Amino acid sequence: MSEKKPKVVVAMSGGVDSSVSAALLLEQGYEVEGIMMRLWSEPGFFTVEGRRDNRCCTRDQMLDAHFVARKLGIKFELIDARDTFKQQIVDRFIEDYSRGITPNPCLNCNRHIRFGFLLNEALARGADYLATGHYARVTRAADGTYELRKGADPHKDQSYVLSVLNQSQLARAMFPVGGYTKQEVRALAEKFGLPVASKHDSQDLCFVADGDYRRFLRHYAADAMQPGPIVRTTGEVLGQHDGLPNYTIGQRKGLGISYAEPLYVLEKHAETNTLVVGTREELGRDHLTVRDMNWIAGMPPAGATRAEVKIRYKARPAAALVRPLGPDRAEVILDEPLPDVTAGQGAVFYDGDRVLGSGIIM
User: Fold this and answer.
1) What is the structure's pLDDT at 209?
2) 290 phi and psi, to 5 degrees?
3) Is the pTM of this model over 0.90?
């Protein structure tokens, strides 16, 4: 008699990726259960079409996850994560924008919600692993260290947002679709007879009901959306902005000012509510510092190391020299300047398809 495989809790969203993940694990002989988190949504938000719920756990998505679980014959549970999600993700998002930085809430969500709150819930239910529908892979090095690698589909790779995971979290993480392309995952959904095979991917910030983060901030961070001066680096005042969160580093259009040559957003100074603009020649940066470093191996490299760095989820990797500055900071010297280095975004470092670590741009 073959030995029974471990128990895996699958984070189900009602989408095709998590649904196929559950089906694959079941096919491989694991004991599988599904959990879906109920997350915070804007109370009483209405559009002309009617009420809009949280974009990642609507009633329809809950029903889809339930139908998939019933089709697969696995236990399914909906758990309440609204308060934790509001405190750890939404409130931090608002606070960061109020401080003049541009956060990536998906990094915080994977660190604190999926592989914090939800992983603990899975372990409390006797699970050995938590599986998600992310396009990434976990491997083991010769010394037993867990490694995070890019997903097989370069167009869907999500290793960027998983770069915050540590060794203890990776030891419990499974990404069943990480070795497949999206097209192959949809084919598997058809094979398993799942009702979500052709379902569209979710987009945008999940907790912003209409996807308009500027509208969201006008309501929840009104103090940060106050008008202020637009200035050159010389101090010359060119006009007035309508709230710092409305602008991103590298933005050219929509500044509402006239000048002899195109101007771009260079910096945002929350302490003076000032937007700094300049020419394209002034825009590029070839040097940055990151904080809150997470080295996947558990410790920084012994010295400076060559790597490719992504400064946004969809950014192209850029060659750089990465020099650790103690355990939780690093200096990054880019081979070529980048025009959109933005405080608050994640900088993720790669050696080929292997993630070395990540930090938050200062």
Assistant:
1) 79
2) -120, 150
3) yes
